Amino acid sequence: MQTEGRGPQAAGGGRALRAAIAGLAGMATVTALNEVGRRTIPGAPRAERLGVRGVRALARRLGWRPSRREAYRWSLGAEAVTNAAWYALAATYRRPLVAGGVLGGLAGAGAVLLPPSIGLGSRPTRRSGRTAAMAFAWYLAAGLAAGMVAARLRPRTAGPAGTERLDPAAPRG
Question: pLDDT grade, residue 162 (50/70/90)?
């Protein structure tokens, strides 16, 4: 990586890539936990049902009646984009692991607390205390994964006696 003079690092191009990769890590983590959990754990959160309900509600307002399968596909795409964008924010902070934890905690709290108030029901993520705890934990894990990836991808420079140290211009974690 080039950090002086010309190149993508000098123009900040590497930051966008780091954020995108961190966002994808967070998105993949929460999606994998939800998909594996719903297939293997009785009473697991069903975040995909919230997505389908949201897509169907929006589609109705637009005069479209998607099938369950169409709504599921649209919700997966929308969740992939929004989750990746949300978790990418971890890479924009000086302490990406802390930021990822905060972002994950906020997403988890939102997944548990918001659905009833926006008309999506409470059963998918609040069927029981255990379901709510799993939903919160899965989003928290995704935030921490994004933060870890962002921290790992920070630029490093050679320090005294050949040791590595963080680039002082890079965000810290």
Answer: low
DSSP H/E element including 18: helix 13-40
DSSP element (H, E) containing 165: strand 164-166
Residue 150: what residue type?
A
Q: How far is CA 91 from the centre of its chain?
A: 12
Contact 41, 133 (CB under 8 A): no
Identify the residue whose tokens are 């302490």. Answer: 95
* Residues contacting 102, CB < 8 A, separation 6+: 143
The 10 Å Cβ neighbour count of residue 119 is 9
3-state secondary structure of 14: helix
Whole-model pTM: value is: 0.81
Distance CA 112, CA 129 (A): 10
